[in-house]
Write a structure and sequence with these properties.
single chain; mainly alpha; 81% helix
Length: 110
C-alpha cells in the first residue's frame, strides 16, 4: 500500500467518523497537522534557534492542498531530501516570505 493511499485512508476514516458535514474540514485538519509536524522538523533542523511554529504556519498556509498531502506523507515514510526541498521551495514563495517577515516583526514587538 503506497503512502498516499495510507494517508488517504486515514483521512477518509477520520472523515467518516466525523460525519459528512465536516468531512472536508476534518480531512484538511488531519493532513495539515501531519504536514506541520514534518515542516516543524525541517525548519528546526535548517534554522536552529528559530521559533519554528510561526514559520511552519506560514509555509503550510502557502502550500497547496496537494503539497500538504505530499508533506503529510513524509510523517509516515520519513523526511527525504525531496521533502526538505519542497518545504524550502514553499518557504521561498512571496506569500510565505511576507508572512514569515510579518510574524518575525510581531515576535520582536514591532
Amino acid at each position: 500500500m503506497t503512502v498516499t493511499i495510507k494517508i488517504a485512508s486515514l483521512i477518509c476514516a477520520a472523515a467518516i467518523l466525523s460525519g459528512c458535514a465536516t468531512a472536508n474540514g476534518v480531512a484538511d485538519a488531519v493532513a495539515r497537522d501531519r504536514a506541520k509536524t514534518v515542516v516543524n522538523g525541517v525548519v528546526e533542523e535548517r534554522f536552529p534557534g528559530v521559533d519554528a511554529r510561526p514559520v511552519t504556519d506560514c509555509i503550510i498556509d502557502a502550500a497547496s492542498a496537494g503539497e500538504i498531502i505530499e508533506i503529510a506523507g513524509a510523517s509516515v515514510t520519513g523526511v527525504t531530501q525531496s521533502t526538505v526541498e519542497q518545504v524550502v521551495e514553499i518557504a521561498a514563495r512571496p506569500e510565505a516570505v511576507n508572512c514569515i517577515a510579518d510574524n518575525s516583526l510581531t515576535l520582536l514587538g514591532g
